[in-house]
């Protein structure tokens, strides 16, 4: 969906025009956060697991070159065809060329945030290839011609009545029907037909193991497996940061992933693909698309540890009240806000500011990414690189001057007058924004400094 | 022991009672407190907006005002966290790092340094405790619901010493109120919605007062309460801990 | 320069100083009765567990539970009398109408009710996903407590495809309301053999 030039605040403003819907969105995601808490609390070793996972990922980032080479050679030994793509365009071209060689023009795809990031569907569509998303949530947003609003729960922003309407239009369910059971059953029939007739399947990759050359895909629906095991060509797409050193490391990540994501003890399927099926062709595409650049940014490389569980979104009080689409990028929420500026600082200069820096994201993150600290650091980078509003820069400079000169500050006027006009947090071109829905604090008779001078000079 | 009192600019000008209560409470507990008159601001408003490079003047001023004290105490978790995490100076690096270690938020100073075990305060009301994020998650003044770890809360520990005070439980004990510095105006819609939801949680559980160790969150919630013509009031925790017998 | 060489060169240039892998964790959760835990977790994720003393009991349970269903397949020799013969070499699409698939698992894990199954136990990779109802048989002694033990057990085993299966296929994509049978099996029964 084209968002024009609206920034996060403007899109959030639109989202907030329907307060009841904001409440519903907030409650639904809070429910997921609560399930996550409950699941985490079943394991007394939870914090040790998080620490362990973070350290494994530290090791991965510090030895990524060798792990990638090791993974590639093991995967090749296993019979996979390995491709490397420097950016989104290269990735998309590789997919298309594989399909063309097999004369395939229709395919199924299970969830892969990487292909969202690369806008693969649009590209294939323009090149005459039909892609059916088989994850139920993704299929729903695909029918609605919208991007997913959440990396784990793609249509969490949609009400069942709206989904019923879509299904009525596209899948012929009865008008007005909105029972999730009925709708899911209709989707099952609709998508089974696709699985059985498509010759190629794309899947994402949750983990790729250097030691064995195998890769792991986690789903609840079983759609990745249905696609992969019924296709003649399986294409798995992954960012280069998805590597882990050893198979045994999975024990840590699989214990964390689903509990963090949805509060389940594990996803229904955690499938380990090592060799192609007899007669099948299996491709694996390793994608950079800005990851090596992020790896070089010492303050931000930790963002590459992300295992895409979505917990930071579910817990984020801003995400819950602004919706995934307000982030105008494939990966929304706190993690999206620290990934996106790496790709395009100008376009995503607003995202690191779409946070109160409350820190809840950092605390839920199963791989302990210091998300809120990175948000703070991105703000500094974005301002330094000149992407801040010039008016804000002027105001900040004026404030700096006053606050570093006590005499100017004290003489700036009678009590409260300077702050009323320059209240630090109000320095902004929208000076009225506080007052629209909030009263100003009452100005007292005297400031504390004045009181202190009179009363405490013993 | 000498304590330098750091009062953030907006408390100085809008909430003198919170500052007075802080001062009196510390004095009651036998601490020698001074308030350097040349102080202004910790620099956080600029830094959190991405202008940390403009905070040199504030940093130098802060060091000049406070380097000499044994401890620096402030009734604002957020400002304290900023000093702890970001105070720096090329010329006075040693002093800056020393200050970062001896700056305390009021309630953690009471529980961890003064090891206060009883208070004379009485406050016969139902009180909702708002956990300000920077104090809670930044300074770790209380356990965070995201972690699998035993609970504790320094502010609650103190509120429990106040006679006749009844703490209300909240549905979401540590959700952010949405103040967030410039966020409160730059992201007005979300900020206001977060604040309304936070306030509603307190009201729903029957709070007559909302308290916190951070006045900025309270200012935001007070703005919303007053607009709603609510009778519920906000009070800085120092004012409750220092409440006189009535 | 090829994309491969280019990417690897950039990784090498940008990766931080080497840090070590952490030591394996110790003291992971242990359950006094792993089978009971397995059963209760399975119940919570929409599956059902039965304890059976031998194949005879298992067969009679299958007969009553799945009475009237036409296409039942299995890779377990002991169940031959119940199931279709010579099914294993058909094209994967032809299993679309399988009513019940009965397979064995190498082991199960109590903490999450996941069962580890590899290709050799499936007959064909698609079987546990395409069937309408799935039955998995596991020995009581093979229920482990946690995932660390699970991967110790898997160790460096060689398989073309292996998967952990925990309960029936499910989705909660529509307003977080849980529905069993998204694409794969609509239910899952686990028989724990004494
Ligand atoms: S940043 Fe952490 S919490 Fe957020 S999606 Fe990634 S792994 Fe999950």
Can you walk through the features of this model?
The complex is a heterotrimer of chains A (458), B (246) and C (194). Chain A is an alpha/beta fold and 458 residues long. Among the domains of chain A are: 43-289, Rossmann fold (3-Layer(aba) Sandwich), CATH 3.40.50; 398-454, no CATH class. In chain A, 50% of the residues lie in helices and 10% in strands. In chain A, strands 1-10-7-4-2-3 form a six-stranded parallel sheet, with helices on both faces. In chain A, strands 8-5-6-9 form a four-stranded mixed sheet. Helices cover 46% and strands 12% of the residues of chain B. Chain B contains 13 helices and eight strands. Chain B has helices spanning 9-14, 16-28, 44-48, 56-66, 77-86, 93-102, 106-113, 133-138, 154-159, 183-186, 188-204, 215-227, 237-241, and strands at 2-5, 32-34, 71-74, 103-105, 126-129, 166-168, 209-212, 233-236. In chain B, helix 11 (188-204) crosses helix 12. The two termini of chain B are 32 Å apart. Chain C has a single domain, classed as Rossmann fold. Chain C has six helices and eleven strands. A five-stranded parallel sheet of chain C has the order 1-11-6-3-2. In chain C, strands 7-4-5-8 form a four-stranded mixed sheet. In chain C, strands 9-10 form a two-stranded antiparallel ribbon. The longest helix of chain C is centred in the N-terminal third of the chain and has 12 residues, at 3-14. The relative contact order of chain C is 0.20. At the A-C interface, helix 2, helix 3, helix 4, helix 8 and helix 10 of A face helix 1, helix 6, strand 8 and strand 9 of C. Strand 9 of chain A pairs antiparallel with strand 8 of chain C, so a sheet runs across the interface.
Characteristic key phrases:
heterotrimer, A: 458 residues, alpha/beta, Rossmann fold, six-stranded parallel beta sheet, globular, C: 194 residues, five-stranded parallel beta sheet
Task: Give the helix/strand layout.
The complex is a heterotrimer of chains A (458), B (246) and C (194).
Chain A: H1 8-15, H2 19-40, H3 46-62, H4 64-77, E1 81-85, H5 88-101, E2 106-109, H6 113-117, H7 120-126, E3 130-133, H8 136-143, H9 160-171, H10 180-197, E4 200-203, E5 207-209, E6 215-219, H11 223-230, E7 233-239, E8 243-244, H12 250-261, E9 269-273, E10 281-287, H13 291-295, H14 311-315, H15 317-322, H16 333-343, H17 360-364, H18 371-384, H19 390-403, H20 406-411, H21 417-422, H22 433-437, H23 448-455
Parallel strand pairs in A: 1-10, 2-3, 2-4, 4-7, 5-8, 7-10
Antiparallel strand pairs in A: 5-6, 6-9
Helix pairs in contact in A: 2-12, 3-12, 9-10, 16-18
Chain B: E1 2-5, H1 9-14, H2 16-28, E2 32-34, H3 44-48, H4 56-66, E3 71-74, H5 77-86, H6 93-102, E4 103-105, H7 106-113, E5 126-129, H8 133-138, H9 154-159, E6 166-168, H10 183-186, H11 188-204, E7 209-212, H12 215-227, E8 233-236, H13 237-241
Parallel strand pairs in B: 1-2, 1-3, 3-4, 5-6, 5-7, 7-8
Chain C: H1 3-14, H2 34-44, E1 48-52, H3 55-65, E2 72-74, E3 100-104, E4 107-109, E5 114-118, H4 119-122, H5 127-130, E6 133-139, E7 143-144, H6 147-154, E8 161-165, E9 170-171, E10 179-180, E11 187-193
The complex binds iron/sulfur cluster (SF4).
Residues 260, 306-312, 335, 364-367, 369, 371 of chain A line the site of iron/sulfur cluster.
């Amino acid at each position: 969906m084209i968002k024009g030039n609206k920034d996060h605040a403007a899109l959030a403003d639109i989202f907030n025009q329907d307060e009841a819907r904001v409440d519903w969105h907030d409650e639904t995601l809070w429910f997921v956060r609560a399930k996550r808490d409950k699941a985490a609390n079943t394991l007394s070793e939870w914090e040790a697991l998080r620490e362990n996972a973070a350290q494994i990922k530290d090791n991965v980032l510090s030895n990524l070159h060798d792990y990638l080479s090791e993974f590639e050679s093991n995967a090749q030994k296993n019979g996979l065809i390995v491709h490397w793509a420097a950016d989104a365009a290269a990735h998309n071209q590789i997919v298309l060329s594989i399909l063309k060689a097999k004369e395939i023009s229709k395919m199924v795809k299970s969830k892969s945030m990487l292909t969202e990031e690369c806008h693969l569907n649009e590209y294939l569509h323009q090149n005459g290839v039909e892609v059916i998303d088989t994850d139920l949530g993704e299929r729903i947003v695909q029918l609605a011609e919208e991007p997913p609003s959440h990396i784990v729960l793609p249509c969490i922003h949609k009400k069942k009545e709206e989904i019923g309407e879509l299904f009525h239009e596209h899948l012929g369910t009865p008008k007005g029907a909105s029972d999730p059971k009925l709708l899911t059953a209709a989707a099952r029939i609709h998508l089974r037909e696709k699985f059985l007739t498509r010759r190629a399947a794309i899947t994402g990759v949750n983990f790729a193991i250097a030691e064995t050359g195998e890769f792991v895909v986690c789903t609840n629906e079983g759609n990745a497996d249905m696609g992969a095991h019924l296709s003649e060509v399986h294409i798995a797409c992954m960012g280069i940061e998805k590597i882990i050193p050893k198979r045994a490391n999975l024990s840590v990540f699989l214990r964390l992933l689903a509990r963090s994501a949805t509060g389940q003890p594990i996803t229904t399927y955690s499938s380990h693909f090592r060799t192609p099926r007899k007669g099948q062709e299996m491709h694996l595409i390793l994608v950079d698309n800005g990851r090596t650049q992020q790896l070089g940014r010492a303050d931000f490389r930790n963002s590459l540890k992300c295992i895409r569980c979505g917990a930071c979104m579910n817990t984020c009080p801003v995400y819950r009240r602004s919706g995934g689409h307000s982030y105008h990028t494939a990966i929304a929420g706190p993690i999206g806000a620290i990934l996106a500026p790496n790709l395009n600082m100008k376009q995503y200069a607003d995202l690191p500011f779409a946070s109160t820096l409350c820190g809840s994201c950092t605390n839920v993150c199963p791989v302990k990414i210091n998300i809120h600290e990175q948000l703070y650091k991105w703000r500094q980078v974005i301002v330094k690189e000149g992407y801040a509003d010039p008016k804000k820069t002027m105001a900040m400079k004026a404030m700096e001057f006053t606050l570093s000169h006590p005499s100017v500050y004290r003489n700036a006027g009678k009590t409260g007058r300077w702050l009323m006009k320059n209240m630090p947090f109000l320095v902004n071109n929208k000076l009225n924004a506080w007052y629209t829905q909030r009263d100003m604090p009452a100005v007292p008779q005297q400031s504390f400094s004045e009181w202190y001078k009179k009363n405490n000079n013993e | 022991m000498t304590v330098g009192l750091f009062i953030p600019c907006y408390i100085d000008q809008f909430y003198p009672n919170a500052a007075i209560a802080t001062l009196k409470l510390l004095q009651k507990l036998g601490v020698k407190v001074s308030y350097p008159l040349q102080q202004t601001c910790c620099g956080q408003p600029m830094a959190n907006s991405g202008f940390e490079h403009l905070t040199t003047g504030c940093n130098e001023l802060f060091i000049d005002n406070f380097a000499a004290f044994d401890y620096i105490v402030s009734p604002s978790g957020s400002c304290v966290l900023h000093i702890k995490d970001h105070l720096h100076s090329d010329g006075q690096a040693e002093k800056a790092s020393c200050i970062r270690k001896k700056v305390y938020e009021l309630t953690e100073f009471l529980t961890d340094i003064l090891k206060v075990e009883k208070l004379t305060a009485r406050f016969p009301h139902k009180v909702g405790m708002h956990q300000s994020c920077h104090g809670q998650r930044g300074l770790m003044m209380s356990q965070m619901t995201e972690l699998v770890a035993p609970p504790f809360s320094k502010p609650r520990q103190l509120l429990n010493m106040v006679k006749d005070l009844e703490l209300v439980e909240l549905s979401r004990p540590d959700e952010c109120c949405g103040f967030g510095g410039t966020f409160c105006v730059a992201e007005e819609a979300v900020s206001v919605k977060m604040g309304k939801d936070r306030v509603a949680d307190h009201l729903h559980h029957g709070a007559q007062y909302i308290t916190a160790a951070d006045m900025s969150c309270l200012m935001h919630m007070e703005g919303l309460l007053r607009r709603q013509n609510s009778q519920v009031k906000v009070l800085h925790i120092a004012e409750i801990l220092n409440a006189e017998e009535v | 320069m090829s994309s491969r060489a280019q990417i690897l060169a950039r990784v090498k240039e940008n990766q931080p100083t080497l840090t070590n892998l952490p030591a394996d964790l110790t003291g992971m959760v242990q359950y006094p009765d792993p089978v009971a835990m397995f059963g209760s977790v399975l119940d919570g994720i929409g599956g059902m567990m039965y304890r059976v003393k031998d194949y005879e009991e298992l067969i009679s349970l299958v007969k009553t539970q799945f009475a009237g269903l036409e296409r039942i397949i299995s890779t377990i020799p002991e169940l031959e009398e119940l199931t279709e013969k010579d099914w294993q070499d058909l094209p994967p699409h032809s299993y679309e109408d399988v009513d019940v698939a009965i397979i064995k698992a190498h082991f199960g894990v109590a903490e999450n009710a996941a069962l580890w199954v590899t290709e050799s136990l499936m007959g064909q990779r698609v079987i546990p996903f395409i069937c309408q109802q799935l039955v998995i048989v596991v020995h009581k002694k093979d229920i482990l407590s946690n995932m660390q033990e699970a991967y110790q057990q898997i160790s460096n085993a060689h398989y073309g495809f292996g998967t952990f299966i925990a309960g029936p296929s499910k989705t909660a994509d529509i307003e977080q309301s849980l529905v069993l049978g998204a694409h794969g099996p609509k239910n899952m029964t686990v028989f724990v053999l004494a």
